[in-house]
What we know:
There is one protein chain. The chain has helices spanning 17-29, 47-50, 62-65, 81-94, 188-198, 222-230, 233-257, 259-274, 301-307, 392-413, 424-428, 442-445, 466-475, 495-502; strands at residues 8-13, 35-39, 101-103, 106-113, 118-124, 130-140, 163-165, 180-184, 203-208, 214-217, 295-298, 311-315, 318-322, 325-328, 333-335, 338-341, 354-357, 360-361, 369-370, 374-375, 381-383, 417-420, 483-486. With 503 residues, the chain is of the alpha/beta class. It folds into 2 domains: 8-147 and 346-502, FAD/NAD(P)-binding domain, CATH 3.50.50.60; 163-341, 3-Layer(bba) Sandwich (FAD/NAD(P)-binding domain). Strands 1, 2, 3, 4, 5, 6, 17, 18 and 21 form a 9-stranded mixed beta sheet that branches. A hairpin with a 2-residue loop joins strand 13 (318-322) and strand 14. Helix 1 (17-29) packs parallel to helix 10 (392-413). The chain is globular, with a radius of gyration of 24 Å.
Amino acid sequence: xxxxxxxxxxxxxxxxxxxIGMAAHMQMKAPHHSYAIVERRANLGGTWDLFRYPGIRSDxxxxxxxxxxxxxxxxxxxxDAPAILDYLNTIVDERGIREKIRFGHKVISAxxxxxxxxxxxxxxxxxxxxTHLTANFLYLGSGYYDYDEPHDAGFKLDDFEGQVIHxxxxxxxxxYTGKKVVVIGSGATAVTIVxxxxxxxxxxTMLQRTPTWMFARPAKDRIANxxxxxxxxxxxxxxxxxxxxxxxxxxxxxxxxxxxxxKDALYKGIEKALGPDYDRASFTPxxxxxxxxxxxxxxxxxxxxxxxxxxxxVTGHIDKFEANGxxxxxxxxxxxxxxxxxxxxxxxxxxxxxxSVNGEPVDFSQRYYYxxxxxxxxxxxxxxxxxxxxxxxxxxxxxxxxxxRVLKEMCARGVDIANPVLTPEMExxxxxxxxxAGFSSGYLDRAKDINPKNSTEYPWRLNQEYVLDRKRxxxxxVADGILTFSKAGAxxxxxxxxxxxxx
Length: 503
């Protein structure tokens, strides 16, 4: 036994959807383990508190973006940020999680000492001072993108005399009433901002270099709302969640197996909203549906703004920025008082935390994912990277549940280290593939060099099939012969010796 126990059994980094979910799962499934959440910002919510641009909302239905343990009760299934924050705040207050959150704690580094079986975590406080905590297990719910800086598209905006805004840093006092706005980008953020600004702005133009596949659906789920009237909330939620998970799975697999069928359906939906004379070229990407995430248009809001003449979609390449707008290579000038650069996020691995083991820095690009939850030869650490083709929280839920099972297994064995050991012999037989094979989104492609490795075969992969993952994570034994268990000081550096120690 160590002379002193760590400050906490589990330290959760991030008080967003992932971190709050892990805390709730621990209270239900590993209640005898202590935990704390450290959050760099002053508020909980992560993405949903950071982004303040007009119309900020989910692009997944809340019956799958919500947790498996907490029914979504709002009328709208496609919810705005305030409703999502209300959902999260209710959970942390009703379950006593808020008192476990330490706000204003930015994690700088974390070093796992095997002789102590604990993480030494250094944090920066709001006043610039440093503090230190220790924990047996580290759970990273810090998201997948850089909170400090967005993707820089390299625009030379010096000649533009208006305002330039990135959605990640939206000013609270921005008045765009009667202004001409150009939103550069065609992803989910742009598709959200354009119709939301169209009410007050003189005109909003979405300037896209490459179109995106779009689909419309009602913001309210009629079936969910009907079921809640006749069934208990938890039952209605479970049925709706099952329905939506299966629909997501079916839509994705159909897009992969019968892309033309899905294209035709998407075209039909846009034609229904805009009429037969719409510009099909502006809604035809050079890739198949679901090679990049589909953009949701709730209640046809973008299409309605276009029909009203308040918004337009322009496809073209930027030549230069001039004093009063954007000059395209075609020669057309898009006049603008405000330019919004919705050009994407910059991925960050492990929240940009300097992770090390016994003082040796960890290079995540040289590690493999283990069950989409841990990393090869990296003890007592778990992470959440949500699905590309489904709701983020689906992975957060199954990872949280799995880590609780690992914690209970460690307790039952009387050990304090769990390590997914990948030996050189095992690695020699791994067939590697791109971690996001089949997806062509720019933000994923730009992060290839920093992402962990990915195998073609489970468990050394970040899979993209929730239904299969959920079954495996819940039913496969924790002690699978790969995840090894040992006591503090028993782990040797050589993987073979680690396996001996685990025996």
